[in-house]
Amino acid sequence: MASWNLPEDVVTEILLLLPVKSLLRCKSVCKSWYTLITKPSFTTAHLNCNAALKRNDCILIKRFLQESNKSVLSILSNEISSDDQVPSTEIIIPHSNHFLQMLGPSNGIACLTDHCDIILCNPSIRDFKVLPAPSFNYPQGLYSSTIGAGFGFDPLSNEYKVIRIAELHEDDESWGYKFHSVKVEIYNLSTNCWREIDAVVPFVWFFPCSELLFNGHFHWWADDDDHGGESMLSFHITTEVFQQIGLPEICAFPDGNERAFLILNESIALLLFNSSEQTSFDIWLMTEYGVAESWTKEFTIGPLVQVERPVLFWKHQLLLEKANGQLVSYDLKSQGLKEYQVYGAQKSFRALVYSESLVPIK
Question: Which PANTHER family match (predicted)?
Answer without folding.
Answer: BNACNNG10540D PROTEIN, F-BOX PROTEIN CPR30-LIKE
